[in-house]
Queue: 3 jobs
Job 1
Amino acid sequence: MKNFLIPTRLTPDTVAAVKTAINHSKNENAKIILFFVTDEINSFSAAQYLREYSNQITYKELDVLDSCRDLIGNFPNCKLEFKRQSGISLPLLKNFLQFHSIDLVLLTKSIITSEKSVHTNLVHGIENQKIPILRLIKDHSTQLNRAIYLENAYSRLNIDDVQQYMQDQFPLQKISQVLKKDQETSEYINFLLSEVLSKNDIDFVIETRTSERSRIKSKKQSVLNQHLDIPILSLHEETV
């Protein structure tokens, strides 16, 4: 069984993320977890806590959740779970990911661009884990078929390592091209990527990360797919 985690604000792009997870399940049994994280509730009164807890989800957000449930109903191989969490910490997140044996985290644009500290902390915490991350950018589902590999200049990995990992974990047609990058040539790499994407039928970009680079670059890591308007699959180098 494949286990997918979708941190969500219950915005419409959540439905697209669920569709992407369904597409990636390849008709195998899959569990898709919607993870709704909100600001921590500070209350000494149980009644007040319950009132604030129940008010954290609007009717509009419930409509999005219902849409996800209706969608899953058409795919008997997929199971949808909805988890709520008030506040988040790194140990809690790590235990949650391990307990549910998450294979892939799908980050929606609404989560990536959220200015709420609880969401930025959640995204940064996920980026420092060793789980593959797919950063989405649009309100429609993503097919993971054709990719371009953006190779870090100082990475210990080569294209063969990544290709083999992708064939085992994320079956796709092929990695069509490879571009090397380093910190000094980010603008030039963006230019090259734009050129490649405009002339080729590329579905997404593959990049690798380390925990050290994630801490250093935190905010920068989500800029690439926002600028180029393409999903990014980020693989941790220690798991490839």
Note: The CA atoms of residues 59 and 65 lie 10 Å apart.
Job 2
Amino acid sequence: MGTEITAAALTVTITETLALDHANGATNDIDFAQIHTHTYGSIANISKRVIKLANTNETVVANFGSTESAGTFIQADVRYIRVTNLDGSDTLQLGLNDGASDGAFLKLGPDSSFVWGSVTAGDLEVEGAHTISAFDDVTELAVKGAANQQLELVIASV
């Protein structure tokens, strides 16, 4: 008999630290530290990949649909997506497409991450010539960057 993976909670913590000094000789820094933690329950599937872009063309790094297959995640099950630009100097363009020539792209700076959390049906609205009215309409996660640019992609689902 085979073993079965039991779903568990994914805990994501974002830590920001900043202390500004008054420069008056006293130790009276103003602390702007912030810690934000969120837990995503019942995560049973996680995909973590480092991807090296072959060229500057748009590259689909994940597909979303109603059934799971190689490189395709079930839309309704996805709870968390993180893309990290591992390049120290080049910007990465990151976008979601709906398969009908509509999409929304943003620029992700060097050594930066973008997180979609709680990505369930109806949580994502992007407008273009037509409308991607919900995450259910999204069929692809695509990127554009420099040749040989690397990114890390994490997708967690129930």
Note: The chain has one domain: 44-157.
Job 3
Amino acid sequence: MHTAEHILTAIMKKHFGAPRNLELHLNEKKTKCDYDLPQPLSAPDVDRIQTLVNQEIANKHTVSFSFMKRSEASAYDLWKVPPEVEDIRIVSIGDFDAQPCRGSHVANTSEIGTFEIASVEERESGRTRVRFRVR
């Protein structure tokens, strides 16, 4: 589930202008991510997101990790990394995406299953909440 969230967030950044996910709740059955988007998502956007995420899953990317010093990690978004952490763990999904993360991930995206968006909601805060599951 966590690797699917990384792929979703990369798609939201690359194709829909989200700077990052702003809030995340991972659950084995269903997950929610909040994004700050320049405009609301349309039904075709939601279909496109689902397709793009599933294409990356189907690419059978190897998921790996490495460590680097904070001073070497300036190219990464470190907002979730506590300031006292000096050794940053970078999770790479093939050549598709690489982000700092301490979470558990699959070894290959082919292990994820099928990504499905369960709902998209525009929140009062202006954020867009995407709920998804993998099967």
Note: The domain at 2-134 is CATH 3.30.980.10 (Threonyl-tRNA Synthetase; Chain A, domain 2).
